[in-house]
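User: My collaborator sent over this chain with a note saying "see what the structure looks like." That's all I know about it. Can you take a look?
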Amino acid sequence: GRGQQDGKIKGQARYHLESGDYHGRVESIIHPRLLIPVLNSNQAAMVNSFVFRGPPIAIAADFSGRTENNDALWVSGLIQSSNFTYQTVPITSFKSRVGYTNGIIAFTAIRLVRPEGEFTGHLEENINSSIANLDLVSTVDPTAIARLAGPEIAAYLDGVRLGGPVRLAVRGCLDHDKGALTDIRAELDGSRLEYAFLDVDRCSLKLTVKQFRIDLTDIRAELYGGTMAGRAAFYPVGGITNFKYDVSLKGDDLNLNTLVKSLDYKGDEDYKGSIYSECTVSGFFGKDRNDTISGGGWVRIQDGQLFQRSLFGGFSRLFSILYPGIGTISLTDLSTKFTVQNQKVQVHHVTLSGPTFSLLGEGYYAFDETLDFIVWLQPPEAKTIIGWLSEIPQPLFSKLLVVRLTGTVSDPKWWPLNLTGDQLLALPKDLIVNMPSDVLKDLPKDLLTTLPKEVLGALPEKLFINLPKDLLNMLKPSF
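Assistant: Without extra context I'll predict from the sequence alone. Here is the result:
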């Protein structure tokens, strides 16, 4: 033949007229498209994705059966090819034993070779029930394997990039019809993996797929100069279209600067510090996924440079006006607890500390990037300021300095809450003009109720006159 029918075939066969038994052997080098007339539309689409740069597939097989009994068909042979592309994936060579009996087609001694590694093992498929049993080991790029499996599988790894070796071992049963009998165990060990903002130097994990539930356990990753460990689960709730996730992670000694840069940060500032954190998050996939996210945890940053960040620029300006000559405030450490709900990260007991001063606060960061915090400056211990106390031209910290932080991370607004008349007059005109007449307006009720008594007590009572009576009565004992 010519074109897609190009190739050759030879063989021999014997047929017993009385019993209907037959057996024989066939050897061929043919293009798979030759089989399209006897395939369904899905199978034909798979065959059409083959592109051969050398000879097409070579097959040598023995067969036997009985004409009146299709179940008696038996096939055993070898299939191999080289230098071809399937589902847009280039393949150096492929070889496998193939067999068929009792409705089960088996590929054993599989060996697929690509430049970066090999794919080996065996696969059995029951063509009557769409059940596959597999035992496979791969050092091939997982995104290439996913593309070989089809566009639906490849979509799960969209955006994943591999820069180093990886080993994936998979064993179990795959029900690719209804999924009820799916039971798969897998282990992954890889290096230099990238996905979205993640840049992983090394990663290992175990994967379990039971029906429609996916569990990732023993997650271990080296990234951003530190380590991360955890587990995750993905499973349907009330129906296959309503998928939930539960994720638990713990990070140690992550480099703050490396992490921020990976988030496509556009600023010129260099960050410094080591991050330690632990959190749990759960929610549902879908168009309203932000509404379903909930969780909590804690974060700690050590040996950092935190106050120099643009987020604190407004506070730094305000502080230097109120207390000229005090010099640069150094804040190196951060610790806080947080909860996630209602599209907000509620931050509790946040403390930014340094050699002399500490900033404390309560508030939230919303998913739309808006902020709302009450922040106060904790006075230093006397022994830490004795050396330069005489340089301060006015009494320092006769009461807590309390401010409100609003706006967004890129455009933060710092408003003083408890300044004296003289201190207000000392502020720049642009700050006074832009200052809201009621700096506590629209302050979340739950934020006020979490403030310590000493902070509420430092606020002028007149700032609370617009609060609901029930909240005002709750807070009055504090001031």
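A starting point for your reply to your collaborator: DSSP finds twelve helices and 24 strands in the chain.
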